[in-house]
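A note from the maintainers: we've had questions about how concatenated examples are separated. There is no special marker in the raw files; a new sequence line simply starts the next protein. For clarity in this README we add a label.
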Amino acid sequence: MHPVLPEPKCSGNPFSIMYPHSQQPALAKTVIFQTKAWKQPFSPQAGKQEDEIMTSVTDITPKGYRIAPHEHSRRLQVVTLQADTIAEFIRQTERFPVQALEYKPFNRFRVAEILDSLCEYTLGKFLLGTLKNRATGAFLLKFEGGDKKDTDFFVKLGTAVSHLIGRPNFDAMSQKYYARFTVRNVDNSDSYLRQPHRRMELHNDGTFVDEPTDYVLMMKMQEENMQGGNSLILHLDDWAELDKFYNHPIAKKPITWEAPPSKNVTQSIEHPVFIDNDPNGRPRLHFIDQFAKPKNREEGLYLFELGESLENDPNFVSVRVEVGDMLVVENHNWLHGRDKFVAHPDLLRELMRQRGQFVA
């Protein structure tokens, strides 16, 4: 029996309040999100004194799927593909085994087209719009029906979703457009990715590569004897000390980033922790604690304190991802991490990752 894990407390943020499933608002055709829009140039202190309310409206009627806010955060949208959509997707993609997706990149866009057509071309618009809307920027995709043990189907479905929102980058760790990796009870790797008994710190992906990483897709492929290990996510606008670290002298100075050998990336990259602001002048983060190589004490202490601030922030959201579910986040507005697992000699959890750039 799974233990009841404590959920994070949320400090009055309208997007991070918790309410029972039975009290969730009914789905309407027009879903309205509100967030604060800062005037350029971005200055958090000044912005908070003269902020404007920006309302983003997504006017989409779901076809073949349902949408609802997550029970722990209204920013996170839960998208559930209906059983008939999944059944027809399986039938129409039978001719595309995983190898066909790996060897012929255009097949990946074909399976995406099939899925979108089954949803009357509303799904791609909703998913991409959700990610590009800073007020939301994340979704948890589930499906009804199908085989919850068919990992080849999971690869197909994950591929379809990732190609509706963009194009995955080549993953040097796996030498494919996606990576699958397993967490077990014992680990001797060279990063925290597979270590089960500690919290994996909040971070952004793609810090050590020289191509854009706009989104990250994480799909659970299988699990055995697993307790704990929830995904942890924190929206940048909910980070209590964003102002402090954005306005620090180091915030926009280049930092060196370098990956360990297991990532199969040999070059070093330089970029600041806070990269170019978004079109509305709001900050975007590009940070991971493991791979930063500070040049001096000033950089080192800034990075240390930034990491400590993120890990101690109470506004993170703990998300249970079931087998077959995928959590997809905009990479520079959300940080993601993982809670620790309860020790078990036969612990196993496999995840598929696809991360890439928006192309639409």
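[label: protein 2]
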Amino acid sequence: MQVSLFRALKSANISDDAAEKVVHAFEEHIDMAVAEAMKHYDDRITAMQSILEAKIDAGFKNIEGRFTGIEGRFTGIEGRMTGMQTSIDVLKWLFITQATLLLIAGTVAGYVKLIT
């Protein structure tokens, strides 16, 4: 574009120095206009990025909360399992005690029968 503008100015009998200054000023104007137009989009992108980061952070905090709830449930289940294990241990010892008492009672009854 600069070359065609420069040629157009030259064909209008404008000096090389003046044509070069016009082309340079025109380039600066285009650069400023593009930068100004891009600033609006850059601001929008930055705002969208902030919104997305906030939503992602909120989502992760929600997930962390759910994991904390699940962890609490597992802790409760673990406590109940420990209680069941204790009950099973008590029943096991009760069964062993009863079996031992039956064995002793049978032995005593057999000994008494043998003596009498």
